[in-house]
Amino acid sequence: MLPSALRVYWMLIGNAVILLTGLTIARLPHWTPTWRDGLFAASLIALVWSRWVDATRYGGTNAQGDPVTKPMLVRWTAVAVAVSAGLWVLSQSIDI
To answer: Which of 36, 56, 64, 90 has the fewest Cβ atoms within 10 Å of its own Cβ atom?
Structure first.
């Protein structure tokens, strides 16, 4: 049960929470720190943590079904953090 929940979180729920939180931040005045920024950061941390636990403890696989290696995890983490940071900066910079 836990491996499936982790996989659903890092593949779907965590990304949706980050995206929706980013959209919510964009509706606020520019560069105004709120609890939503904390939720955004906590969601990103939970996303990365769930991916690492899935891969290291429960034999997580990639899209082709191969076991995930540490270099794959590091690359995935770097991309996830970079994209999320970009979304956060964009969210703080625009009005919708």
So the answer is: 64
